[in-house]
Design a protein that fits this description.
Elements: E1 5-9, H1 13-23, E2 29-32, H2 38-46, E3 50-52, H3 55-59, E4 62-67, H4 74-82, E5 90-93, H5 99-111, E6 115-122, E7 132-137, H6 141-147, E8 153-157, H7 164-192, H8 196-206, H9 210-213, H10 217-220, H11 224-240, H12 246-257, H13 270-277
Helix pairs in contact: 1-2, 4-5, 7-11, 7-12, 7-13, 11-12
Length: about 280
């Protein structure tokens, strides 16, 4: 493995696209195959990433670790890296986590002798310019921004302390994904009460954008399992600020009820989504 390479953990759809940005600049990027699916392997290969069998192998000589995983796995992954004797590199957490979780991970990494950058990605996987932003903060944030210069991932350095990038991500996702959960719940309620057609007719008169927005959930249901922990992280962020977090705990339950659509071959219909929400 190349000395001072970047270890990317783990290349899902977002991670693979981020890795492609780095590999496209000629930077060596490794990933860990152990325990991952054939689909992950195919994405990583297409992105030009170097395959490692184990985490130990990927971390050997890695100057930077880039963590992009479902939020429920962020702390476990950080512990695994921090627990590797001798890791003194830069750990970049780009997950959808609460600022308090980011600060906990920062303490874990720094206690182990490493350095930490807090990050938050907003937008789809960066496969073309102008669609995706990567907000970063921390003393080494300019170094991270430099890695992505002239790539499809626009990197923006924030002035705040560690946790600021995660806080921005939480605020954005609180509406972006929270609204998806709310509208899905409203459509399910309207169907349960037999007033769905009447609600749609009223929306077309007063809020013409809402009928289409309320069906976005059908294209996102297969990803809903990833958003359960993200909603709980958002709730924790609200609660830490002295605000009620109950709405996003409820959004987590909405997405949990859709977790059966994970890895589906096609998007479900709205009726299928409603049945899952109402547990019919």
């Amino acid at each position: 493995m190349t000395e001072s390479h970047i270890a990317l953990l783990h290349p899902g759809e977002m991670g693979a696209a981020v890795g492609r940005c780095l590999a496209g600049r000629g930077l060596p990027v490794s990933w860990v195959f152990d325990g991952r699916s054939a689909a992950t392997r195919a994405r990583a290969a297409a992105a030009g990433l170097e395959e490692c069998l184990t985490l130990e192998q990927a971390l050997d000589g890695a100057g930077i670790v880039l963590s992009i995983c479902p939020p429920h796995g962020a702390m476990e992954l950080a512990r695994a890296v921090a627990g590797r004797k001798g890791f003194r590199g830069l750990y970049v957490d780009a997950n959808a986590i609460a600022p308090s979780t980011a600060r906990d991970i920062a303490r874990l990494i720094e206690t182990a002798g490493g350095h930490f950058v807090d990050g938050g990605i907003i937008g789809p996987p960066p496969t073309s310019p102008g669609r995706t932003r990567f907000y970063v903060c921390g003393r080494a944030a300019p170094e991270v921004a430099g890695l992505f210069a002239a790539t499809d991932l626009e990197t923006i350095v924030l002035d705040g302390e560690v946790g600021a990038a995660s806080a921005l991500k939480m605020c954005f996702a609180a509406w972006n994904k929270g609204a998806t959960a709310l509208l899905a719940g409203i459509r399910a309620l309207a169907q349960a009460e037999g007033v769905d057609s009447g609600l749609l007719a009223e929306w077309r008169l007063s809020r013409p954008e809402l009928p289409a927005q309320s069906e976005v959930v059908t294209t996102q249901a297969r990803k809903a399992w990833r958003w359960v922990a993200e909603m709980d992280e958002i709730a924790a962020t609200f609660e830490a600020a002295g605000l009620p977090g109950g709405f996003h705990h409820a959004a987590a339950e909405i997405f949990e009820r859709l977790s059966g659509f994970k890895d589906g071959a096609s998007n479900p219909s709205l009726d299928e989504v409603t049945a899952a929400l109402l547990r019919r």
